[in-house]
Write a structure and sequence with these properties.
Layout lengths: L3 E4 L2 E4 L2 E2 H8 L3 E5 H14 L5 E6 L6 H10 L2 E4 L2 H9 L7 E3 L6 H10 L3 E4 L2 H14 L3 E8 L21 E2 H13 L3 E7 L10 H19 L6 E3 L16 H11 L6 E4 L3 H4 L3 E12 L4 E5 L8 H5 L5 E3 L9 E6 L8 E8 L6 E4 L20 E6 L2 E6 L4 H5 L10
Parallel strand pairs: 4-20, 5-6, 5-13, 6-7, 7-8, 8-9, 9-10, 9-11, 11-12, 12-13, 15-17
Antiparallel strand pairs: 1-2, 2-3, 4-14, 14-15, 14-19, 16-19, 17-18, 20-21
């Protein structure tokens, strides 16, 4: 569905004008469409048909409790990478036995928390992690369900910072070593080997990398079975991209078909870990134009959102569409760099955008539902933005804007000098 659309010159989300949200909640503010999130998750779930499967939403994309609650109600599983994400999922009503725990740096405390909760699986990413997980499970008197995250050395064709499946990446275990690691895991008293996992990157816009990864993973599965090890699930990970500008990514049904064709019909549960492709296009960041500035060579629109609110442009030089919230203007269009108030030259939301603007206008940065608020910070002592969920004509505040007191909570002054 097209969650954001113009009605009589006013940009709306579902049935609500974005200008009304800005008036009620201020700016900057993140706005999400409930219907768009639900539709995208269901498209993954339906794509697997009657195959045994579990869609595990990647919490890192957007971990707001209301978003997690919505997905838990749909029956979603969850892919987490920290103890904090574990607690978020549990607090939002997610089932522990539908959580997979990824990440290269799981701590002893996080392992203890996850074992106590009874999660579905640890995606183990190193021999050292496997040894620690075995020791922690022994201390609490249980077996830890585990899969090995294999690195298939597949180029996902994405930005280097979000490519995770190449041999030089910090993620996973080289597929050439994985058979030995599985054998080691099978000998450990407090490890129960339940599956295999891989994740090759993020914002992937073609099927080829998924196909190559599945071929290599299934070849390893055949070797493991030949050695007498039977796995219960196969996890392709996530990474399907969205359209930011002119990308034409595959649909969830195409990715699901790739997995189903690679894996025999019976005997395995299929797991997938989408994040961006569920929430990305369901969200936008609203911001107000503070000043229009002309330095003789360039026109700048200085807005009240900044790189601390939306990091992707500064971090990846990422392009996200920027739209006027209302099209009723007498201003002449010009090329603007849309920049924030933060004291960094990299503080921009978009460069060279053709916009007709006046001070006080509202802009919407599109496709901001994933890796928007979740990557935001308090740099320059800026309170983080509010978040809003829209369902039809209903508007729900799902995160209050941070206050200046929130910024300093937990900090203490030094005691008086003697």
């Amino acid at each position: 569905m097209q969650a954001f659309h113009y009605v009589n010159g006013r940009l709306c989300v579902e049935e609500v004008p974005l200008a009304d949200i800005a008036a009620g909640f201020g700016t900057p503010v993140y706005v999400y469409s409930r219907a768009a999130i639900e539709e995208q998750w269901r498209s993954y779930d339906a794509a697997f048909g009657d195959r045994d499967h579990l869609v595990c939403y990647a919490v890192k994309a957007n971990g707001n409790l209301a978003v997690l609650d919505l997905l838990a109600r749909l029956g979603s599983g969850f892919d987490i990478v920290s103890g904090g994400e574990l607690q978020r999922v549990l607090r939002a009503g997610g089932r522990a036995d539908q959580i997979v725990f990824s990440g290269v740096g799981k701590t002893r405390t996080e392992m203890q928390m996850a074992l106590a909760a009874g999660i579905k699986c640890f995606n183990v990413e190193s021999r050292a992690e496997l040894a620690l997980l075995n020791a922690v499970a022994a201390e609490v008197g249980c077996k830890a369900p585990a899969s090995v995250r294999v690195n298939p050395d597949v180029d996902a064709g994405t930005h280097p910072y979000i490519a995770t499946g190449l041999k030089e990446s910090k993620f996973g275990i080289d597929i050439a070593e994985a058979r030995d690691v599985y054998a080691e895991a099978g000998r450990l008293q407090h490890i129960e080997v339940v599956g295999i996992d891989c994740h090759i990157g993020s914002q992937i816009v073609s099927l080829g990398p998924f196909q190559s990864a599945m071929e290599r993973v299934m070849a390893l599965v055949a070797e493991l079975e030949g050695a007498g090890m039977r796995l219960r699930h196969i996890d392709l990970g996530g990474g399907l991209g969205i359209r930011y500008r002119d990308e034409d990514p595959p649909q969830p049904a195409e990715v699901a078909r790739t997995v189903c064709e690679a894996v025999p019909e019976a005997g395995y549960q299929l797991l997938i870990e989408p994040g961006r492709s569920i929430v990305g296009t369901a969200g936008a960041l609203l911001t107000s134009v503070l000043y229009l500035k002309d330095n003789g060579d360039k026109h700048f629109a200085v807005v009240d959102a900044a790189m601390n609110d939306l990091m992707r442009p500064a971090l990846y030089d990422a392009w996200q569409d920027i739209l006027p919230v209302t099209t009723d203007t007498r201003s002449q269009p010009q090329l603007y760099d849309v920049v924030g108030p933060v004291c960094e030259s990299g503080d921009f939301l978009g460069r060279g955008r053709q916009l007709a603007l006046q001070e006080g206008d509202l802009l919407a940065v599109c496709s901001a539902g994933a890796y928007g608020f979740s990557m935001s910070s308090n740099y320059n002592a800026r309170p983080r933005a509010a978040e809003v969920m829209v369902a039809g004509a209903q508007v729900y505040g799902i995160r209050a804007r941070e206050s200046l007191d929130d910024l300093m909570r937990g900090e203490e002054l030094l005691p008086p000098d003697p």
